[in-house]
Design brief:
The radius of gyration is 42 Å and the shape is rod-shaped. It contains 5 helices and 5 strands. It has 184 residues and is mostly helical. Strands 3-4-5 form a 3-stranded antiparallel beta sheet, covered by helices on one side. Among the domains are: 30 residues, no CATH class; 88 residues. Helices cover 43% and strands 8% of the residues. Helix 2 crosses helix 3.
Amino acid sequence: MKFEIRNLKFEMRNASPHPSQTSSFILHPGFADASVAFPATLSTFPDNHEALSRGCSSFSSAFSLVEVLAAIAIIGIVTFLAIPNIVRVKQDGEDNLARARAETLNMAIASYVQAVGTNIASTAWSGASADSRYNLLRPYISFSEASLTAFTPSGYSFSLPATIVPMTNKTTISNSLKATAIYY
């Protein structure tokens, strides 16, 4: 079967508001007759605005209500599972900070006794208040706070040992929220 096309006129109207814009045409190489021409760019799919104006679209432009509700439910379940772990991690971090600060106080006590001697340290330590004892230790604590209250993490309390000789006593930590002592 053989087809021949002769004297076919091809007219392309431009949808642009500017009539001076013209479309370029190329001759199809299979035809010898110059009266058959095809546009340089062919588009088989309509533009998005044309498809939407006709009411047909090959893609979805929004989420359905079921998809949104499913996403919210999944986020809720993940949040429900994650919040207790986040609270526990925060509490564990605060306990670790309190332990580290208590250990810093114990190391400062040992450094103080080594620096000034056992007799002088014991004499200055006995009968002093907690803030006075902390002031004796401040030179041996890096980046020390101005007072023991400022050095103590929120919700915790430190009890400095009553005597520092012998050095077997430790600073004790208690958490006012848990009402228990923290051992380290």
